[in-house]
Amino acid sequence: MSLTREAVLAALKDISDPVSGQDMVTAGLVRALSVDAGRVRFVMEIDPATAPQMQAVQAQAEDRLRGLPGVENVSIVMTAHSNKAPPDLKPAAKPAQQGPEPIPGVKRLIAIASGKGGVGKSTVAANLATALAAEGRRVGLLDADVYGPSQPRMLGVSGRPASPDGKTILPLRNHGVTLMSLGLLTAEDEAVVWRGPMLMGALQQMLFQVQWGALDVLIVDLPPGTGDVQMTLAQKVKVDGAVIVSTPQDIALIDARKGIDMFNKLNVPIHGLIENMSVHVCSTCGAREHIFGDGGVKAEAEKMGVPLLAEIPLHLSIRTAGDGGAPVVVSAADSPQAQAFRELARKLIATDLA
Ligand SMILES: Nc1ncnc2c1ncn2[C@@H]1O[C@H](COP(=O)(O)OP(=O)(O)OP(=O)(O)O)[C@@H](O)[C@H]1O
After folding, report:
1. Model's pTM, two decimal places?
2. Which of 17, 24, 196, 347 has the fewest CB atoms lying closer than 10 Å?
């Protein structure tokens, strides 16, 4: 039997909130719950003053959920709901922007989205960023996947970004890409407690308080799905286009369609679809197999009148390169896999970044 949202909520009701004395669900600590094929994610919105107690609640909730049948992965992100500035980062002098605004010095902003998790969105974002850098573009990458920031690992970057003036944050840099990620401000597996009314405050800080410098393109790696982060991004900043990553599987395609509808409603142009894990290429014998089906994304792209920008093969080297901190575009630049990403970068430059 597959894992249900109800089962997750019932389990979380066993955990009590030490502040209110109620169970954590009734106390309203569980926000933005998503249960997706064994992956459970939610946000705990807390008062920063209670952070130490809440870390214990978070740990109990994780243990309880990991013990549930069908749970493969648990991700609980803590955010601070107080408007007070944290001790080490004062709010920017300017008040929060209302309408979509450009980021100073950033020529284009491209959002990389996916309808569902695990389709390789972050892998595509890391390889596209390094491929655009290899084509001579000045590239930034903002890891806005607040539930599971993976870009520091994929780009081999670690360490805490500095904030010399206490107002702006200096991003890090590797493989020709300027990177900022929530994952860089917290130790791996550590709770994320960030200033701001919600996660949205965190996103806004990453957009406007990071010293991006002069960039030809800023790539934003979004969380999967069609949630608040996507909405906030489109409301706060001028998004020049979205690229939707999907696998050939039907379910991923249906979710991709939802993503396209959302960007249409938000008036964000769709640059196109990317089929990831397209054909499996055996790393020893080179045999090709369409594990997740064949032609689905291409047909869908045609039906929706959006370009199919790339078909990226499912290849072991793409995963190992990402895990090793040097995307395949950098670590095996001459491989057909790397060339697929370089081709994608050239296509985007010719059509959307010219
Ligand atoms: N084309 C590919 N070939 C081989 N492995 C891949 C490919 N694309 C992604 N992967 C692997 O699949 C896993 C999931 O990819 P990734 O983390 O990029 O997905 P995601 O859509 O960003 O996931 P999340 O929902 O967690 O944000 C990773 O281990 C990655 O290395």
Report:
1. 0.74
2. 347
Q: Is the CB of 151 under 6 A from ligand 1?
A: no
Q: Are residues 264 and 142 in the same domain?
A: yes
Looking at residue 23, which CATH number applies to its domain? 3.30.300.130
**352: amino acid identity, one letter:** D
Instruction: Say whether 324 counts as a known binding-site residue.
Output: no
| Ligand 1, pocket-test mutation among 36, 123, 317, most atoms within 8 A of CB | 123
Residue nearest ligand 1's atom 8 by CA = 120
Is 0.90 exceeded by the ipTM? yes
Q: Quick one: pLDDT at residue 188?
A: 52
| Statement: residue 88 has pLDDT above 80 | no
**CATH at residue 248:** 3.40.50.300
10 shares its domain with 154: no
Query: Is 91 contained in some domain?
Result: no
